[in-house]
Every structure is written in structure tokens, then in C-alpha cells.
Amino acid sequence: MHFSLLLAASMLGGLSPSLAAEGLENHARIAETARAYIASRHPWQQMKTKITVQSLDPRTKLARCPVKLEAFLSAGAKIKRRTTVGVRCASAKPWKIYLPVTVEAFAKVMVARHPIAPNTDISERDITWSQRDISALGYGYLRSLGDRGGYRSRRSIAQGAVLTPNMVEASSIISKGQRVQLNSSTGPVAVSMAGIALQNGALGSRILVKNLNSGKQLEGVVESENIVLLN
Fold first, then answer.
1. Which long-range contacts (CB under 8 A, 24 or more apart) does 88-92 make?
2. From CA 14, how far away is CA 31, in angstroms rounded?
3. For residue 159, is pLDDT > 80?
4. Where does residue 31 fall: left (phi above 0), alpha (psi -120 to 50 degrees), or beta otherwise?
5. Do residues 116 and 122 make contact, with C-beta atoms less than 8 angstroms apart?
6. At 54, phi and psi to the nearest 5?
7. CA–CA gap between residue 12 and residue 29 (Å, rounded)
8. Hey, how many other C-beta atoms are within 10 angstroms of the C-beta on 113?
9. Angle at 100 between CA 94 and CA 102, to 5 degrees
10. Pairing state of beta strands 82-89 and 127-133?
11. Whole-angstrom Cα distance, residue 165 to residue 155?
12. pTM for the whole thing?
């Protein structure tokens, strides 16, 4: 479920009645316009989110807008964790102002349960799940351990660190020296033959193999735990 919160209590309280009597725009109305714009457009719609609009300087005085306020982004701008949103009044006496808006998006991510050494196959016993603000994870995050083969650590991973794609690589599902089935479909008829892997290989990676019948060294793509597709 999507939740949106505005953490700007001072703005939600509005301005004093005397300012409204002076014909000045309510700061809370400006902030809500910016918040609603981001809430309906940010890229984390299916997650629990928290939206914070930075308070306007109390000394900011704008004429009360007789029409609906409009929010907008500068040309080429995209909604990110922190975005500057423009709010304008398109009346006979137009004005516009800009407000920083921050979006925090929360999701469960994989976290290292203990220190993980380099070149270690990562399993369920190595990870735990923790809710984090994924909008702040500039390097992304992993949603699962993968369908087949899983992951191997590229480098040391500290206890409590969020696992990110640049920390891991696909684990090998074929080992050097392993007997494999070599499939070829380059001709009109599919052909299978016995071979041996000359390298370790992860799912989808290219490895060298040897045809046991001809002794030729070939290259193919790892298709499963014991099949290499020649091309």
C-alpha cells in the first residue's frame, strides 16, 4: 500500500489569520501543492513512502492566488530522492516559487548477517532482511539471491551492509573439468555431443569447452548446470 506523509508541521498549521487578511498566500497551500505533485509521480508508488516538503522562509510573502496553484519541474528535471519543485500562480498577477521535496521509500533489502569474505558463495544463512530507505541506495539493492546459481561475493562485505549488485557476481554452476552436454543449433539440425568444461561458468556466461569426440576447443554459453550452448 502506498502511504504519503508530509513532515512539515509548521506549514500544515498554516499562516496566521492576520496574513490571510492581508491577502497573502498560505504557505501550507503552496507546500501541499508541491507534495501532491511528487506523491502522484514519484517512482516508488508501490512502497511505503514519506514525503517531506522544506518549510518556506516565514518572511516569504506572496499574493494570494485566486486560482488553483500549479506545480511543475524545471525542463529536463526528473523526480529523485530530493527534487526541487516549482509552484506557480497563473493569475493576472503571476508568481512562482521553488521548494525542495524529499521522498523516502522503504523496502525490505538483503543485509549481510555477518562479515562475508571475497569469493564466497552467498546463501540464506549469510543474509538477513531489513527495511531501509532504498531511495538513498545509490548503488541499488538485491531483491533475492537469484533463481539458479545464486551469487558470489566480489570483495569483502561488512556485517550489516546492504547487498548491492556491484558487490556480487553470479556464482559458477559449471566447474572446470566437469563433463557437460554441448548443444549446437547453428545448422538445420540440432546436435548434441559430449564435452568437458575448460573454465568455471555462471548461468549465461561464455566459457571454453572441449569436444570429447573431436578434441576441438570451442566456446559456448552456459545454459544450465550441465548444458553449454555452442554458437
1. 89/25, 89/62, 89/63, 89/65, 91/65, 91/66, 91/67
2. 10
3. yes
4. alpha
5. yes
6. -65, 135
7. 8
8. 14
9. 140
10. unpaired
11. 12
12. 0.63
Helix, strand or coil, per DSSP, at residue 16? coil
Query: Which cell is 34 given?
Result: 508541491
Do the beta carbons of residue 142 and residue 163 sit within 8 Å?
Answer: yes
Distance CA 209, CA 122 (A): 26
Backbone angles phi, psi at 103, to 5 degrees: -115, 125
Residue type for 101, please? V
- The grid coordinates of residue 228 equal 553449454
* Beta-sheet pairing, 217-222 with 70-72: unpaired
For residue 207, the SS3 value is strand
The 10s digit of each residue's pLDDT in 50-102 is: 999 999 999 999 999 999 999 999 999 999 999 999 999 999 999 999 999 99
- Among candidates 222, 183, 215, which has minimal Cα distance to 199? 222
What is the grid cell recorded at 151? 551469487
Go through the chain and tell me how many residues it has: 231
**H or E stretch at 107:** strand 95-112
- For β-strands 70-72 and 82-89, DSSP reports them as antiparallel
